């Protein structure tokens, strides 16, 4: 009877935490269940972002700062076009893109929901060029577009509700203290494994989406392999049972697997040489016009 009570209450707990809104992640098509609204997440992230920026030191390198903003905006424009062309223009109201380069030697970058992105100066020696920077920014933008923060927050809610309800059920069923302790330990380990595994899936999804966003914006996605190899050489890669990032080897292998898809979206940006040719054409046209005027005078 006690066992039956535990099963029934656990099922009720599962039903309770299973409620929410189901949405589809762009590009990958993965289904996700969210227990929090866009407004709730944006409210929390905006507060945290403002607090961080009040203490952060903006980069004093005008050239690099301009590069981060330029590449970031190119990606944001490409994402906006993609969402609009695929019937998701309503999502654009959730983004107010902002790209900042700050004085920090860490090899890192991050994105808040709503499109607030911060790049640390320490990652620029690894990116080395705009295309590789686009890979980084595309990855961060993907976290926002895929609503990974809302998904993680929803996951935490589920864990809290599930833990509270199951704890009450176990105590009410008269389970011994020793058994309760074992159940509690199992929950903690299981939760840690599930959460870290879930985060690895998010990171891989961001790699996938970011690669395509970079290609959409006109940056060669093929530079991603060399960039992640340089990252691996820094010893910053993930891996391990409780890691929240994929291993460097898996990351590079996955990116190579997604490359054919990304290249379908890649259209190289117009080069400076093309602009010079256009200018020469305009000059030629002006000379022709002068000839016509001379002819008229002879008449």
Secondary structure layout plus pairing:
Layout: H1 2-17, E1 21-24, E2 31-34, H2 38-55, H3 62-85, E3 98-102, E4 109-112, E5 116-120, H4 124-127, H5 130-145, H6 148-172, H7 177-216, H8 223-233, H9 248-263, H10 272-298
Parallel strand pairs: 3-5
Antiparallel strand pairs: 1-2, 4-5
Notes on the structure:
This protein is mostly helical. The chain has one domain. Helices cover 66% and strands 7% of the residues. The protein is built from 10 helices and 5 strands; from the N terminus they run H-E-E-H-H-E-E-E-H-H-H-H-H-H-H. The strands form 2 sheets. It has a 3-stranded mixed beta sheet with strand order 3-5-4. Strands 1-2 form a two-stranded antiparallel ribbon. Strand 1 and strand 2 form a beta hairpin. Helix 1 (2-17) packs antiparallel against helix 6 and helix 7 (177-216) packs parallel to helix 9. It starts with a helix and ends with a helix. Mean pLDDT is 78; it is low at 1-17, 165-176, 191-196 and 271-299.
Q: What key attributes describe this structure?
A:
299 residues; mainly alpha; three-stranded mixed beta sheet; 66% helix; disordered C terminus
User: SSE string, helix = H, strand = E?
Assistant: HEEHHEEEHHHHHHH
Gross morphology: globular
- Sheet with most strands: 3 strands, mixed
Distance between the termini: 113 Å
Q: Tell me the count of domains.
A: 1
The pLDDT mean sits at: 78
Binned strand content: 5-15%
Unreliable parts: 1-17, 165-176, 191-196, 271-299
Secondary-structure-derived class: mainly alpha
Give the tally of β-strands. 5
Total helices: the number is 10
- Based on CA atoms alone, the radius of gyration comes out at 26 Å
Strand order of the largest sheet: 3-5-4
Assign a percent range to the helix content: 55-70%
